[in-house]
Amino acid sequence: MSFVFPVDSFILPYAQYVYLAIGVGMLVGLIFSETLGVMGGGLIVPGYFALHLQDFYAVSITFSIGVLTFLIVKFLSNYIIVFGRRRVILSLLIAFLIGLLFRDFLYMEYIGFIIPGLIASWMDKQGIIRTVSVVVIESSIVHFFLMLIFIYSI
Q1: Chain CA centroid to CA 109, Å
Q2: For position 1, what pLDDT does the model report?
Q3: What is the tens place of the pLDDT at every residue in 77-100?
Q4: Fewer Cβ in 10 A, N or C end of the chain?
Q5: pLDDT tens-digit series, residues 7-33
Q6: Is residue 118 part of a domain?
Q7: Which DSSP letter does residue 9 get?
């Protein structure tokens, strides 16, 4: 069976497309936010995820860190007063520390340094299933546009 495009051609060069991925991701995130009322972990998350969609382990570890962070923040909110900016900063900080643990001691790679914290923050606002679904859908759309740009040299 012959493919029209080789599978390796869909792995986009990171340094060359990171600015474009973030820009297209912000546009797709804005469209989803205004039309459907859902956010995929903030405006920069879909772009970064689009560049790493081929790395299943990094994507799953990033979501795992986000869920773990969400659960820790939910537990801590029973004992301390955490609302608004404090809650977002706490999510970012806890996810950053968990990510350091994963990266430095368990030698597991994940996407970005603040991406899991942003995802955890939006999981707190929208729920886990909705946030994960929107991140995957938006990232897939961004990745599709990046593939078109890469293949057709637009």
Answers
A1: 14
A2: 45
A3: 999 998 889 999 999 999 999 999
A4: N
A5: 555 566 667 788 899 999 999 999 999
A6: yes
A7: G
Whether 73 maps to a domain, the answer reads yes
Residue 64: what residue type? S
Tokens at 56, concatenated: 């299943």
Residue type, 75: F
What is the tally of structural domains in the chain?
1
Q: Strand runs (DSSP E) across the chain, as ranges?
A: none
Full residue range of the structural domain in which residue 51 is found: 14-145
> What is the spatial distance between Cα 39 and Cα 63, in angstroms, rounded to a whole number?
15
R_g over Cα of the chain? 16
Collapsed DSSP state (helix, strand, coil) of residue 139: helix
In a domain, 121, yes or no: yes
Residue 107 buriedness (CB in 10 A; 0-12 / 13-18 / 19+): exposed
pTM metric for this prediction: 0.86
Does a structural domain hold residue 8? no
